[in-house]
Amino acid sequence: KNEVSKEDFLRVAKDIVGDQMLRKAVELMQEK
Predict the structure, then answer these.
(1) Distance (Å, whole) CA 22 – CA 32
(2) CA 16 – CA 10 distance, rounded (Å)
(3) How far apart are CA 13 and CA 29, in angstroms?
(4) Number of CB atoms found within 10 A of residue 6's CB
(5) pLDDT at residue 29 above 90?
(6) What is the three-state SS of the chain?
(7) CB burial string 13-30: b at 16+ within 10 A, e below
(8) Would you call 9 helix, strand, or coil by DSSP?
(9) Cα–Cα distances in angstroms (integers) from residue 7 to residues 10, 11, 20, 28, in the given order
(10) What confidence category does residue 32 fall into, taking pLDDT thresholds of 50, 70 and 90?
(11) What is the pLDDT of the chain when averaged over all its residues?
């Protein structure tokens, strides 16, 4: 069985969400 533990899934999800938030923050800073 190839199961992803909840801890690993949350860690990856946080990385993805954090990356998207960082990109949006950079875009907002560049607009000013």
Answers:
(1) 16
(2) 10
(3) 24
(4) 8
(5) yes
(6) CCCCCHHHHHHHHHHHHHHHHHHHHHHHHHHC
(7) eeeeeeeeeeeeeeeeee
(8) helix
(9) 5, 6, 20, 31
(10) confident
(11) 93
